[in-house]
Structures are given as structure tokens and as C-alpha cells.
């Protein structure tokens, strides 16, 4: 996934607190796990390239609901990272979507 490293470097350039950077990193890890879970359950997602499958799950408002359920505050934090990733990809010339 060629867009994750540039996205993480972009976050580093923003001089965010270490705790915030770790939260975003952990949310990306959670997103990857959710993509794997959903691809196992949905044959349509399984047939898509990984990048396309990720962006099938992302929206401008956030990411997918995580299963098994996480706390509301953890979901909000996860959604914040997904929104940042979505905006980053949409505003850069990565050509994924």
C-alpha cells in the first residue's frame, strides 16, 4: 500500500505530539485488520485490489464501524484518522481512486 508511508510521513511533517502519531498509527493498523476481516466475508471486496478495498470502506466522514465493537471514543478516534487519510489521498496525486 504505497500511500500509507507517504501519509505517515505527512503526519510527521505536521509536528504532532508523539501520542497523537501513535494513535494514528494504531488506527491505521486497525483499518488494515478491518479490511482483512471484511475481505474474508465479502467476495466482492476480495476481488478488488487492496487499495480499492480500503477506499471502499473509507468515506469523507470516517471509516467503517469496527467489529467487534469498540468504545464510542475509540471509534471517533479511528474515524478521525480515516478522515485524515481520505483527505490526504484525495488532495495528493497518488492516483488511487
Amino acid at each position: 500500500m504505497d500511500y500509507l508511508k507517504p501519509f505517515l510521513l505527512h503526519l510527521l511533517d505536521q509536528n504532532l505530539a508523539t501520542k497523537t502519531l501513535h494513535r494514528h498509527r494504531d488506527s491505521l493498523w486497525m483499518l488494515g485488520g478491518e479490511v482483512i476481516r471484511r475481505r474474508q466475508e465479502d467476495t466482492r471486496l476480495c476481488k478488488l485490489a487492496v487499495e480499492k478495498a480500503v477506499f471502499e470502506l473509507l468515506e469523507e466522514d470516517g471509516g467503517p464501524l469496527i467489529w467487534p465493537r469498540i468504545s464510542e471514543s475509540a471509534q471517533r478516534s479511528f474515524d478521525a484518522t480515516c478522515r485524515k487519510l481520505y483527505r490526504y489521498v484525495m488532495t495528493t496525486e497518488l492516483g488511487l481512486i
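The longest helix spans residues 18-41. Residues 4-8+17-91 form one domain.
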